[in-house]
Write a structure and sequence with these properties.
Number of helices: 4
Helix content: 40-55%
Radius of gyration: 28 Å
Number of domains: 2
Structural class: mainly alpha
Length: 178
């Protein structure tokens, strides 16, 4: 019980916690990232996340092999052998599919943007025509680019003579000089 109850969850959670440091060392990207990246812009990161979720889901399903064998009227050994193979194969296949989808999405212009609605009208003669609707307020805006975060922000202390007492700024924020 020690391996499946302590070692394996510890290994999985350690990998999840150390993943940003592992990726930072592998890619050499040491910048601060305060905005989220789109999954299609980081296909390797997306594939790794999908593989981890697929692994955990497959392990979750494999934890009920006896119930599945009884429900589907299949031998317990067949279900166990299926999951022995599936735990290895499913995350690899899921990662490859996610990677390919992200790569394909990178090549399509305008993907992820909302399409304009089209109204279908029928004339008195029975002819159908399509009329595009005017753009919505969200459709005309451009996607914002992230602004760089300053390296250092200098905050001027309040003029209370250097004492360690707290003082309230004009905005009502409590400040402590150090």
């Amino acid at each position: 019980m020690f391996l499946p109850a302590v070692v394996f969850p510890g290994l999985i959670f350690t990998i999840c916690l150390l993943w940003p440091a592992i990726e930072r060392r592998h890619t050499g990207d040491n910048e601060l990232h305060n905005l989220l990246d789109r999954p299609r812009n980081r296909p390797k990161r997306t594939a790794a996340g999908v593989a981890m979720i697929a692994l955990l889901f497959t392990l979750f399903c494999a934890s009920s092999t006896d119930v599945m064998a009884n429900f589907f009227h299949v031998s317990l050994n067949e279900v166990i052998w299926f999951f022995r193979v599936a735990v290895i194969v499913v995350p690899i296949v899921a990662a490859l599919v996610a990677y390919q989808l992200c790569r394909e999405m990178q090549g399509v212009h305008g993907i992820g943007k909302r399409k304009r609605a089209v109204v279908v009208r029928r004339s008195a003669e029975g002819e159908y025509t399509t009329v595009p609707t005017p753009p919505r307020p969200d459709d005309v805006g451009e996607e914002l680019h992230p602004e760089p975060v300053p390296d250092r922000i200098d905050i001027k202390p309040l003029g209370n003579g250097g004492s360690l007492e707290t003082e309230t700024s004009p905005t009502g924020v409590r400040q402590v000089t150090r």
